[in-house]
């Protein structure tokens, strides 16, 4: 056997190919559900204020405006993002209603439908939106927010 034959065997060795494939996989960070903070809700008169929207959206790797748009659209209420990144809803909404909608946002726009990881990113390509899982690499198309 010549040196070329040994190199060819090395190239097609199962263990070598398997290790090479594993090295190319994205590193799994394992974001668990308990790493995701709940929304902190406060009331200012007839307004509902989400105090930690900036922290939540940072942990979820989502734009705060996307989270806000989903919540306001589902609540059917007007609202805005303040300069300090607190979200104000111009209506008094029960904390349970807001938390339930937040849980639905997590399920539909954050959680990977394949491996159930929360380590994802929301990507927008033109009119199409999809979730790309950073743990398993799966892509799931979702309705635009």
TrEMBL record:
Keywords, alphabetical: Initiation factor, Protein biosynthesis
InterPro entries noted in UniProt: IF2/IF5, Transl_init_fac_IF2/IF5_dom, Transl_init_fac_IF2/IF5_N, Transl_init_fac_IF2/IF5_Zn-bd
Keyword Protease (UniProt): no
Highest taxon of source: Archaea
Domain Translation initiation factor IF2/IF5 positions: 31-139
Record Pfam families: eIF-5_eIF-2B
GO molecular function: translation initiation factor activity
Gene3D superfamilies: 3.30.30.170
Similarity annotation: Belongs to the eIF-2-beta/eIF-5 family.
Name of the protein in its database record: Translation initiation factor IF-2 subunit beta
